[in-house]
Amino acid sequence: MTGLNVNERLGRRVKKLYFVRHCQGEHNIDDNFDLKDPELTAEGMRQAETISSDPLMKSVLGSDPTVRAEVIVSSPLTRCLQTAVAAFDGYNIPIVPCAHIQESYAGLRPCDTGKPKSELEIEFKDAYIDFSELDESWYDIDPEISRHEETREPFLRKRLVQFMEWLREREEERIVIVGHKGVFRRMFPMPEYPLFKNGEVRMYPIDFTNKITWPIQVAQDEKSMKKPLNKPSFDKSVVEAESKKEHLRIPSKII
Question: What is the DSSP letter of 77?
C-alpha cells in the first residue's frame, strides 16, 4: 500500500472540480431579469480577468501536468462563456459548453434563456471553445416547467445528476466548471454551503466511484469521513435573505 494516495487506498475515483460563478452580468446590477441572455459588464470583465490569480486557480493553470486543469466546462449562457474566455482562453485548455448547467429558470426568465448554438459559434469564433456537443436549440425548455417549483426543482435535479454522470464519463480528473449561483445553490444547498458570489472560485472533490445520486456528496477525507472539504464560512442572515430572493423573483413580463 506504500505510495498510494488516500483515494487509491479507499478504492475511490475522486475528481477535483473547481466551481466558478460567472462574473457580474448586466442583469446583476439591478436584478433586471428581463434582459435577454445578458453579457458581462465592464466590472464583470475586470473580475473575470483576475480569476486566474485566485489561489485555487494558480496551480491548476500552471505547467505541471499532474495538477493542471484538463478542461473548462461552461454553461452556454453568454455571461458564463465570456467569463470562461476572459479567465482561461490564454491557457490552451479547451472550453466545452454543457446545457445541463444552464441557469435554473431557463425558458422562463429572459436572462436565463440562451441563444442558438449557431449564434454562439459566430460570437465566440476566435475563442478556444468546442461546441460539438451542444445542440442547436439547447436552451429550448418549456417555460411552464421553470414557472412552478413542483416541476422546476425535480427537472433541475434530474439534469444536474445527468451533468455529474456526464462528468463521470469524461476522462479528465481536474475540471473547471463555470456556472450560475442558482445551479450551484442546488448542487451545494444552504445553509450548509453559502451562495457563490460573482467570480468566486471553490474546489469540491466529488467521488465518482458509484452512481451519482441526489444530493450530490462532496468527497470526504480519510480522517474525518463526516466533514466536507473546502466549506467556506457564511453569514446566516445573508443566506436567508438571498434564499428568499432567489425563490420569489419572476420577470415582470411573465407575471
Answer: S
Contact (Cβ atoms closer than 8 angstroms) between residue 50 and residue 23: no
d(CA 80, CA 59): 22
Q: Which phi and psi (to 5°) does residue 66 adopt?
A: -80, -15
CA pair distance 108, 87, nearest whole angstrom: 29
Peptide bond into 189 cis (omega under 30): no
Structure letter (DSSP) for residue 1: -
Rounded to the nearest angstrom, the gap between the alpha carbon of residue 7 and the centroid of all alpha carbons in its chain is 24
Checking 147-152 for CB contacts under 8 A at 24+ apart, the result is: 147/108, 147/250, 147/254, 149/247, 152/104, 152/105
Query: CA angle, corner 88, sides to 82 and 89, nearest 5?
Result: 75
pLDDT score at 254 = 33
pLDDT along the chain (255 residues), means of 10: 45 89 97 96 98 94 95 98 96 97 96 98 97 98 96 95 96 97 91 91 94 82 42 44 46 34
pTM: 0.85
Q: What is the pLDDT of residue 249?
A: 40
